[in-house]
Amino acid sequence: MNTIGSTRYVKNQNLGFTIPYTLNGDERNYVPDFIARIDDGNGPGDLLGANGRAGRHRSSPVA
Prior knowledge:
The chain is an all-beta fold. It is built from no helices and 5 strands. β4 (about 35-40) and β5 form a beta hairpin. The protein is globular.
């Protein structure tokens, strides 16, 4: 079983970080409110984008 070794996060304010994706043939960019990197000790870690607003729905990529 893997446990999370460290988590780092930052608010995506004025950073310009986007996640490109395609929806119904249209190219779009998802702009997450927060960017997090989770290191479980098995490689470079996972990079996550998250929307911090409860109840607000935006188009987002599906992995």
